[in-house]
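To assess whether the prediction recovers the assembly geometry, we first specified each molecular entity separately, as shown.
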Amino acid sequence: KAGVTQTPRYLIKTRGQQVTLSCSPISGHRSVSWYQQTPGQGLQFLFEYFSETQRNKGNFPGRFSGRQFSNSRSEMNVSTLELGDSALYLCASTRGAGGRGSHYEQYFGPGTRLTVT
Amino acid sequence: AQSVTQLGSHVSVSEGALVLLRCNYSSSVPPYLFWYVQYPNQGLQLLLKYTSAATLVKGINGFEAEFKKSETSFHLTKPSAHMSDAAEYFCAVNFFRAFGKGNQVVVIP
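The predicted structure of the complete assembly is given in tokenized form:
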């Protein structure tokens, strides 16, 4: 079974631009979560989608948004990029519905490395 | 609220020696706990998880972890380090709620 795929793998943008990242979950997984990973902050939760609905959201500004399509594929968008948005963005899918009480593990993609100059 | 503490961002261990990575958590609900490993330029991969069955959990690559409720801990161990264990390790509690900041493990030959 194919794993979680993320495109593109690497991206360079300039401040003020916007960017869209894509994630395809494992077949049959309906929950997708996004994380920002930086050396200083570790993994920080952005948001989680299940059946096209955002179920949970982390503490990020409104410039960060996402959506999920009917085939469970997900995209996240960052508008008005700032230097501090440079990070590895990870997508993860899970078999169950996710959420706080979930014991299901997450399956991570390789990430998209975003560099903002 | 949930949170995870991993002390020591960088951990050096000699090849063949014990690997011990500490994880302490706080959770307002019964916790589910996870250890993930991340190799360079890859996403995270599950090592093992605790879901309230056995308190001693065995995972892949010879790793295991013990859940201790009284100490709110879920430390990861491996009896004998191998060069291939060089990676970053993350402890997480209750799904996405909180990840530790990670331990970068360096194995010294």
